[in-house]
Amino acid sequence: MAKDKEAKEKPLDKMTVKELREIAKGIEGVVGVHGMNKSELLVVIKQARGIKEAPKAKTPASVKEIKAKIKSLKAKRRDALTAKDKKIASRTRRQISRLKKKTRKAA
Question: By CB neighbour count within 10 A (0-12 exposed, 13-18 middle, 19+ buried), where does 65 fall?
């Protein structure tokens, strides 16, 4: 019956801290559940269940590719501003800002 419950529950990463604490309380040898944050709870629960987490492979984006994308977004934003479409202009401004941050990290 426990296998049926595990099959029906949502992924651990999608659970709230309260749900993770309830699961961690049921694990023997775990102390201080209420003082743990979400990442600590996930580690404890995954160790208890024998789940090995594979490191996430990031796709390295080159600075040239990112800057080309920024250039196209700036043109799109300019067009939106001339058309007085503030919603699209604002959205593209945020995208440009995020991409600029990525260039700083990639450099």
Answer: middle
71 and 35 Cβ atoms separated by less than 8 Å? no
Give the span between the Cα atoms of 18 and 41, in whole angstroms.
Answer: 10
pLDDT, averaged in runs of 10, over the chain (107 residues): 58 89 89 89 89 70 89 96 95 96 83
What angle do the packed helices 86-106 and 63-82 form, to 10 degrees?
160
Specify burial of residue 41 (Cβ count, 10 A radius: 0-12, 13-18, 19+). Answer: buried
Q: What is the pTM of this model?
A: 0.45
Indicate the DSSP class of residue 33. Answer: G
- Judge contact between 42 and 17, C-beta under 8 A: no
Q: Are 73 and 92 in contact (CB under 8 A)?
A: yes
Strands (E), 1-107: none
